[in-house]
Design a protein that fits this description.
By secondary structure, the protein is of the alpha+beta class. It is built from 15 helices and five strands.
Length: 335
């Protein structure tokens, strides 16, 4: 059993659904409509106590072979009165029982055959948050177990909940990773800086992969036929085209180093004194003209030559050092 939400005429409606197996396929069915206010099915008995509406328990109980109250409390806990939830949280929190036993051979077979690559990439991202998914084939089976015994609808609701935790500047990178767009590019930056790739090509490949997934019947098993782009894929179009990439660690580190190098730059001293003849050669100006220059004129000439000879402009480091040494030596006679 799981909780879903759907926007209808601008309002969010909540539904209780259940995944069930039929003809070796996991399907989904609706158990109960909670409307726009699921909290109305929570009854408060005074103090900090509460219980669930009998109508809800009775209806859901028809589809389960055990008492559904604990599962329902888990799903409706976020809708409990905030003040009561705050008071109860330290010693009470409804929890679901998750499997902690050893993976069985049947589960390993299901993990291998039933979990789509798109789901694997999404799970890998939420576990590691990495652009590079080179080790995706080495994911531990227990990390993939969460996808078992779930219909496509329940799986998508699971990922919807996970994606709510993503930061806005992470959304486009997330889509880049889960649609495996890097494999279309041979550039090394494809593994670290998608923002540096040809964005028109990237847009093209995203749309191609999106359409392929939309038509992939193995992915949508158990879901009703849908005309056009499936509603569960709309969000990825918005994530991709309405957001920008987060500045990658690589680009941030490169920028930081560049700024630090320039901010702390000091020309290396030239140990041997520069003669007037050498200064004339370095500046490509006669000695007489150098001697007649004012301090301001000499500085302007130095700056002009420095722009031409700076290593960042293609000049040699040793020549730039000699130029600076000559300038400092000539400057002494202008003081």
């Amino acid at each position: 059993m799981y909780l879903t939400k759907k926007t209808i005429q601008g309002k969010i409606h909540y539904f209780l659904r259940q995944s069930y197996k039929k003809n070796n396929f996991w399907l989904s069915r609706e158990l109960f409509s909670l409307g726009t206010r699921p909290g109305k099915y929570i009854i408060y008995g005074g103090g900090n106590s509460f219980y669930l509406d009998d109508k809800l328990l009775s209806r859901v109980g028809e589809f389960t072979n055990h008492d559904p109250e604990n599962d329902l409390e888990y799903l409706l806990w976020p809708f409990v009165d905030p003040e009561i939830r705050y008071k109860l949280a330290p010693f009470y929190k409804p929890e679901r029982k998750f499997k902690t036993t050893k993976i069985t051979s049947d589960e390993l077979s299901a993990i291998k055959n039933e979990i789509h690559d798109f789901d694997r990439r999404r799970l890998h991202y939420f576990r590691y948050g990495s652009i590079n998914q080179g080790a995706i084939d080495k994911m531990r089976p227990k990390m993939l177990r969460v996808m078992l015994e779930k219909s496509r609808d329940e799986r998508e609701q699971y990922f919807l909940a996970q994606e709510e935790a993503l930061e806005p500047d992470e959304l486009k990178q997330y889509v880049y990773v889960i649609f495996d767009l890097k494999h279309y590019f041979s550039e090394l930056i494809a593994h670290a800086m998608p923002e540096g790739l040809d964005q028109q090509r990237l847009d093209k490949y995203f749309l191609i992969n999106l359409c392929e997934l939309n038509l992939d019947k193995s992915f949508w098993v158990g879901m009703p036929d849908y005309c056009g782009l499936h509603e569960y894929l709309h969000r990825y179009v918005i994530m991709f085209f309405d957001n920008n990439y987060r500045a990658s660690f690589f680009s941030q580190e490169t920028l930081r180093r560049f700024i630090n190098q320039r901010a702390g730059y000091r020309a290396a001293g030239y140990k041997r004194p520069v003669t007037r003849e050498q200064a004339g050669t370095i500046f490509a100006v006669s000695i007489d003209r150098l001697q007649k220059m004012s301090k301001q004129e000499l500085t302007r000439l130095y700056r002009k030559k420095a722009k031409e000879m700076h290593p960042d402009k293609g000049g040699e480091h040793s020549s730039f050092v000699k130029l600076t040494a000559a300038y400092n030596e000539l400057l002494k006679s202008k003081l």
